[in-house]
Design goal:
Elements: E1 2-7, H1 11-20, E2 28-34, H2 37-46, E3 51-55, H3 63-73, E4 78-83, H4 88-97, E5 99-104, H5 105-108, H6 113-139, H7 142-156, H8 159-162, H9 164-177, H10 181-199, H11 212-228, H12 235-248, H13 256-262, H14 267-278, H15 282-300, H16 305-311, H17 317-328, H18 332-339
Parallel strand pairs: 1-2, 1-3, 3-4, 4-5
Length: 340
């Protein structure tokens, strides 16, 4: 039997929904009710819930925030949105976060019993399909299971947001992994929820299976949001601001002390946070970013090696060539020749 939780700050709306729906006829049972998202999360800790009916506009914790947090904490739970909002884009944002359907409160009183039967039958079919997809996911074993666990871990830890090199590697790995579409959809939905929670913002909802170009644009939207944000309370935003600054100022010295002071952090704490989020030390990241910029200039321009070295922050051409060979295994002139 499908266990249902009704989440709405309007007590009369909750009671009405509980009493009017023919739950048992569709193998459903109302397990409980909650007045806001926080109360719903408390209920989920100690009770089985398969399906939540969630009002989007609630005090304490909104329905949208509840969906995001539940995606991370209870990924098997499904959602139906109940709302006054007639703006489809607003409802669509909830659908893309994980909701499987929605019902308008404005139309609610107009429904006949046959409409409720049809609606619950529709939900029941969706739940069965989702259960089947979950079964397919659990059936992934052996090497595929290893790939799934690796991709899920790497997408959800969000290092790809801060580390360009990790982003490119992870996109390629996902394309080559050969996982079922339902598995990648689940991973992407949970990743989007985590990103929204990290930056305390409603970012662009992910399509079911986003392309690399779409995810690249999504990253840039996050950077644009971070650059507009004020204050230094959110460490993730501070690090994104730093990375954006590095991209635009590779010709400058870029000492850690200067960059840390620029965002109002001590050098030691800044370096600690930077390593945790990017997976590289600050100096490693700057060097790799400069070398990647050098590669692009060597491929796409006819500038001299000396000029390129100066443009990315190396005054000494010989020192730049040594660093370049340490990173790539060949000298800049050899790299340009091979690229051509």
């Amino acid at each position: 039997m499908i266990k249902v939780l009704i989440v709405d700050d309007d007590k009369l709306a909750r009671k009405g929904l509980i009493s009017i729906m023919p739950w048992k006829a569709h193998d459903m049972e109302v397990a409980g009710e909650a007045a806001n998202g926080m109360k719903a999360l408390e209920f989920l800790k100690n009770n089985q819930v398969d399906l939540m009916f969630v009002d989007l506009s609630m005090p304490v914790m909104s329905g949208m925030d509840l969906i995001k947090k539940s995606q991370r904490l209870y990924p098997s739970v499904r959602f139906v949105v109940i709302t006054f909002h007639e703006d489809f884009e607003y409802v669509q944002a909830a659908l893309r976060l994980g909701a499987i359907d929605y019902i308008s409160k404005i139309e609610f009183e107009k429904y006949e019993s046959s409409d409720f039967d049809s609606f619950l039958s529709h939900l029941q079919q969706i739940m069965k399909r989702k259960d089947r997809e979950d079964g397919e996911a659990k059936a992934v074993t052996g090497e595929k299971a290893v790939v799934r666990d690796e991709l899920e871990h790497n997408w959800k830890r969000l290092r790809w947001l801060y580390n360009d090199f990790e982003f490119e590697r992870l996109c390629s790995r996902s394309a080559e992994g050969g996982l079922p579409a339902s598995e990648m959809e689940r991973i992407f939905a949970q990743t989007a929820a985590l990103a929204d929670n990290t930056f305390h913002a409603d970012l662009a909802p992910w399509p079911v299976l986003p392309t690399r170009a779409w995810i690249r644009g999504y990253r840039e939207k996050i950077y644009a949001y971070a650059l507009q944000a004020k204050g230094a309370e959110n460490i993730s935003i501070c690090i994104l601001k730093t990375i954006a600054y590095l991209r635009e100022n590779l010709s400058l010295p870029l000492h850690a002390e200067f960059v840390a002071e620029r965002i109002g952090m001590s050098r030691s704490y800044f370096c600690q946070c930077f390593k945790r989020l990017t997976g590289l030390t600050y100096n490693e990241y700057v060097r790799r970013t400069r070398i990647e910029a050098a590669k692009k200039l060597l491929r796409e321009s006819s500038k001299s090696v000396k000029s390129i070295a100066e443009e990315i922050g190396y005054e000494d051409e010989k020192y730049f060539s040594r660093i370049f060979r340490e990173e790539t295994g060949i000298l800049p002139s050899e790299y340009r020749g091979r690229a051509k």
